[in-house]
Design a protein that fits this description.
about 180 residues; mainly beta; nine-stranded antiparallel beta sheet; two-stranded antiparallel sheet; 11 strands
């Protein structure tokens, strides 16, 4: 959050399971983490997440679970990913997701499956370029009004000055809007 959500070109940690699965290819040991955010001290706006990265001989598996909301409104995401490096300078990752939405009172709940795909390139020393596509299959969330899960494309760069200092920039495009 402190970086304004600019995360598509980051690599090597378990939160790549949520931001750009290709970055998981650079994870070298098992990692697990929990996240909790209570926006504006309002429990109904809380965000909870957990992720695990499990490197194997040729790639890394990732698992992510996230939840936003409370008993009367909740958005949940469950994802299983796999990322594979192609040498030291390029990686690709894919994820299968299940999304659920619950709205209290008489609205009920719904769910749908979708996917994600990401790539990471390191063309020169200290420079990383990332691209990510969420919901390329345009999954339908509800039949009413042909409501669909947004399809979002992200592209970003990261330049690392040292192990502790870097700069990153990212652009995002929702295909439903100009």
């Amino acid at each position: 959050a402190g970086m304004g959500g600019s995360s598509v070109a980051l690599t090597g940690d378990l939160w790549c399971a949520h931001n750009n699965q290709a970055g998981l290819a650079f994870v070298r040991e098992v990692q697990a983490g929990l996240f909790y955010e209570n926006r504006f001290l309002v429990k109904a706006l809380s965000m909870k997440a957990a992720a695990v990265a499990l490197p194997i001989k040729r790639g890394t598996f990732g698992l992510e679970v996230s939840s936003f909301g409370y008993t009367q409104y909740a958005e949940n995401k469950y994802g299983l990913s796999y990322a594979m490096p192609f040498g030291e300078k390029f990686a690709m990752g894919v994820q299968v997701d299940y999304l659920s939405l619950r709205i209290g009172e008489n609205y009920g709940k719904t769910g749908t499956a979708t996917g994600e795909i990401g790539i990471i390139a390191k063309p020169v020393k200290n420079l990383t370029i990332g691209a990510h596509l969420f919901n390329p299959i345009r999954s339908k969330l509800a039949a009413y009004n042909d409501e669909r899960v947004p399809t979002i494309m992200r592209f970003g760069v990261n330049y690392r000055f040292s192990d502790k200092v870097f700069i990153t920039a990212e652009a995002e495009k929702d295909v439903d809007f100009k």
